[in-house]
Design a protein that fits this description.
With 140 residues, the chain is mainly α. Helices cover 76% and strands 0% of the residues. It has a single domain (3-138), classed as Membrane associated eicosanoid/glutathione metabolism-like domain (Four Helix Bundle (Hemerythrin (Met), subunit A)). The protein has helices at residues 3-33, 51-62, 67-80, 85-106, 111-138. The longest helix has 31 residues, at 3-33. The radius of gyration is 18 Å and the shape is elongated.
Length: 140
């Protein structure tokens, strides 16, 4: 697989993180302008935020949890030359599930549906790691 095809899902995942950051900034600024929230309310992590802001903040924070394992895996797969078509397809499924989870989180926030998107992304990532580990260990 080409480096570009392996990295493209990673780039989309990074873009998702920055899009969520932009949405978070807009929602917070709107709350500040409407005096529904004071900038000082953000001085302490975990401070109470109105739901529309807290939803995006939570989704943004989620992008620094499980996706870190995806980033590491992509880098390792490139370095070891273990990224193939199956890897790229699974990467896209992971990223699309993460996009779905984020969209649900900042939108209707239906936990059961959001949980299904999360579950798909986790299962795919777990399978990707298992395949990678087996491929590495099989060539000792």
């Amino acid at each position: 697989m080409s480096i570009e095809s392996v990295l493209l899902p990673l780039f989309v995942q990074v873009l998702l993180t920055f899009v969520l950051l932009g949405i978070l900034a807009v929602r917070r600024q709107r709350m500040f302008s409407n005096r529904e929230m004071d900038p000082q309310d953000l001085a302490v992590r975990g401070a109470r935020e109105p739901a529309p802001v807290a939803q995006v903040a939570g989704s943004f924070q989620n992008q620094f949890e499980i996706p870190v394992l995806f980033y590491v895996l992509v880098i390792l797969a490139l370095f070891t030359r273990k990224a193939d078509l199956v890897f790229v397809v699974m990467s896209w499924i992971f990223v699309l599930a993460r996009i779905a989870q984020a969209a649900i989180h900042i939108g209707p926030n239906i936990v059961r549906v959001r949980g299904m998107a999360f579950g798909v992304s986790m299962l795919i990532l777990l399978i990707m790691w298992i395949i990678f580990i087996v491929r590495i260990l099989a060539h000792l």
